[in-house]
Design a protein that fits this description.
The complex is a heterodimer of chains A (187) and B (394). Chain A has 187 residues and is α+β, with helices and mostly antiparallel strands. Chain A has one domain: 3-Layer(aba) Sandwich (Protein Transport Mog1p, Chain A). Chain A is 23% helix and 36% strand. Chain A has three helices and ten strands, in the order αββββββαββββα. Chain A is globular. The termini of chain A are far apart. With 394 residues, chain B is mainly α. Chain B folds into two domains: 225 residues, no CATH class; 125 residues, Alpha Horseshoe (Serine Threonine Protein Phosphatase 5, Tetratricopeptide repeat). Helices cover 69% and strands 3% of the residues of chain B. Chain B is built from 19 helices and three strands. Chain B has a three-stranded mixed beta sheet. In chain B, helix 18 packs antiparallel against helix 19. The longest helix of chain B has 48 residues. Chain B starts with a helix and ends with a helix. Classes of the chains: A alpha+beta (187), B mainly alpha (394). At the A-B interface, helix 2 and strand 7 of A face helix 7, helix 17 and helix 19 of B.
Amino acid sequence: MNKLTFALLLLSTSLVSCAPQWYTVKKSVVDKKTGAVLAAPTGWKFMELENRILITPDSPDLGLLVFQVLPVSKPMKFTKQIIQKNMLPEDLAALVTDNYQLNQELTQFKILENSPEVLAGTEGFRLISEYKSGDGNPMKMLTVGMSQQDNAIVFEFAAPKRVYFDKYKPEIEAIISKFKISPEQKK
Amino acid sequence: MTRYPFFQNFATLGILCFGFSLYAQEKKTRTFENDEAEIWKESQIEQRKMEESGLIYQDDSLTAYLNRVLIKVAGDEINPVVPRVRVIKSPVLNAFAYPNGTMYIHSGLLAKMENESQLATLFGHEITHSTNRHAILAFRSQKSNSDALAFLGIISGGFGLIGAVANLLGQVGYMASVSGYSQEKEKEADVLGFQKMKMAGYTITEAPKLFEILKRDLDQEPPAEKQSFFFSSHPKLNDRIKNYNQLLGANSKPDSAGVDSVFIKVTRKLLFDNISIDIQSGRYNSAYYSSTVYIKRFPSDYRVYLLQAEILNKRYPDNTDKQAEVMELYKKVVGLDSTQADAQKNLGKWYYKKGDYTGALPYLETYLKLIPNAKDKGYIEGYIRKIKTSMDSK
C-alpha cells in the first residue's frame, strides 16, 4: 500500500467515524456546549449535531425532538431577523413563528396555541402549531423556548398529527420540564 | 387482385411512402405544437401551485385596478394570451409573466412604485414576453435535446436559496422570474413594452425612473440570497435603465407623472402591509423607507408609527438614541389615540424591558382593559404579576 492509498483510507475512515450517528439514550443526554441535561427515557435514540441534539422515541418520521441553542445577533434561517439577548418570551415566540411561516417546508402553517411557559426556571413561551410537511403529511408541533443573555434555547417536537403527536407528547413534555441548565451556563 | 402483384405492391409502397411523408410532416408539426402546448400546460400547473400556496395577496380592488392597467397596456391584439395580474406576498423586487399572459408581481416591487406610468412600464415589458412567445423561443433555441434538458435541469435544480416563491416555481416560472431571457429578448421586451405604454398614453419619462428606484432599493437592502430574482439584479437593472434612456432619446425632457392620486389610493393597503412583510423578512431598511413614504402619503394614519417603532426596536435593540425614538413613537400614537391598544401594550413592554416597572404597569393594565381577551393575555398578565410582586417586596 503506497502512502497516498494509505492516506485516503485513513481519511475515509475518519470521515465515516465523524458522521453523526444515532445512539441509544442510557440515562440522559448532556449538551457539551451548554452543559444542559436532557433526561430522555432509556432506549430512545439521540444524535448530536452542531448546536442541536435530536431525540426520537422510535423513528424521526414518527416523532422528533430537536434541542437547539440559537446564538444572539445571528439571523434566523428564514426570517433573517436576529435573536436579541434577553428577549421577552412573546417576542421570541413571534420571531420563531415568523421563521416557521417563511419556511416553505411547512405549508399551511397555523398556530393553535401561544402561551407563557417556564423553561429551566426562566420565563419562556410555548407554541402548538400544525402544518403539512413537504410530502403533504399533516403534522403537529410543540415548541418551547426561552431567551438568555448569550443565546436562546428552543425545543421543537414534531410528529404526525394522527396518533403519534398525542402518543409521545406526555413524555416529551416530561423531558422539557426536567430540562436543567447549570447556574454558570445560565447567563 | 392477385394478377398484378408487382404493381399492387408498387402501389402499396407508394401509398405507404405518401402516408409516411404525411405522417412525418404531421409528426413534425405536432412536435412543433406540442412543445408550446407543453409549456402552457406546465405554466398552468405552476400557477395552480402558486394559487394554493397561500402566498397570493388578497385585495380585490387592487387586483381589479391592476388588471385594468395591464389590459390597457397590452392592447387588443394579444389572442390567445389572456392578460391577468396576481400579487404575491413577497418583499423581493420582482415580477414575471407566464406564456399564457398571467403575470405575477411581488408586493415588494409594487410597494416601491410611485405612479401608474411606472406600473405600465413594468407591465409593457412583461406582457411582451408573453405576446412574443419568449418562453417557447428560448426553449427552442437550445441547440440540442441535451441542451434543452440541461436548460430544464437548471430550472428544476438550484433554487433553494431564493426563498419562498422560488420554491414554488417550476421550469417556466423560474426562467421568467429568475434567469430572465436572452439579452436580445429582454431588449425586445423593453422596446415593445415602451411602445405599448406610450400608445396607452402614459408618461414615458417614468419608464427609466422605475428601474432607478429599484436599483436604489437594492443598494439599501441587498438580497440575502446569493441567487437573485431578475429585477433584484444590478446588471439587469442597469440594462433596463440604459435601454429605456435610449428609448426616451429626444423625449427625455424633464417631465413627471406628478402625484398620481388614484395609484396612491389603490396601493395604500399594499404599501402598509408590505412594511410588515419586510419586517417579517428582516428587511429593516426597506421597511423603514416604505414607512416614510407611507407617512408622507397618509400622515394621519398613526398605525404606521407603530410599524416604524417596531422596525427601529428590532434594528437597533442596543442603541440608546434609537430606543428613545421608539418610545417617542409609541407615546405619539397613545397621545393621538389613547384607545390604540397595541401602542399601550408596546409602550408598557418597552418600559418593562428597561426594568422601569412603574412606567410599564399603567400601559399594560390599560391594554388588558382595552382588549380583555387579548391573544397574548397570558404573557401580559405574567408581566403585571412580576411587576406587582417586585413592588410588594420593596
